[in-house]
Every structure is written in C-alpha cells, then in structure tokens.
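Quick log. Single chain, no ligands specified.
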Amino acid sequence: MSEKLVLHPGPEHPISVTASAERVTVTARGVMIADTRSALVLREQGYPIAYYIPRADVEMAQLRQTEHETYCPYKGEAHYFTVLSADGELTNVVWTYEDPHKAVAEIRDHLAFYPDRVEVTAGPQ
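-> predicted structure:
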C-alpha cells in the first residue's frame, strides 16, 4: 500500500484555524443538532469557511457514523456521519478528522457540517 500524500499549508495554499467569538448553532430539518460558543473557524484557500464544533456540543445521538471516507492531503482522513431525523436521514452531511495532520491538529474531536445541507448559524445569539 502506498503512502498518502501529505501537504503543508503555506503561501500557495493557506489554512488557518482560529477560535470563533460567535455562538454557532446547527439545525437539521428544524431540530437542533449543535450549539456552541467554542467553535473553531477553519479558513482554507478556495473553500468556504468551515465551523468545527466540539463533539461535547453536538447531539451525537442524532448522528450515525457511516463508512464513507475521503482524504485531504492538508488535513488527513475525513470520516462522515449521517444526521437522523423524523423526516428521514441526511447522509454524510457531517465530517470529522479523527487524526488530523499536525498543521490542523486543533480540529481533532470536532465536527463540521455541510452548510448547504443543514442550517449553520453564527452570530451573537
């Protein structure tokens, strides 16, 4: 098995992880899935801002881990979750890096949500 490519953020592909000063909530089909004042904001060139929410602030009972995985050479292996709701499932709408690369180690034990599939709100709520 060949080793996966590992790239490091830099001027050609900047990535930053900072603490959010805002309250971040996530709802799916009207059900609150996450509510935190401890989110991390990941900014990566070419991608929209992603809020990473501590697992402790996510209703994990509303999620089921799937077998889907992807690989990012800057962040590592991403694992996915499906949101469970009374109206059906939202498949692979949540991702996490359980063992992220050193450059983004802060996102370990955090989950991110596709904002086009669930409602992610950030503000002084």
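The chain has a mean pLDDT of 96.
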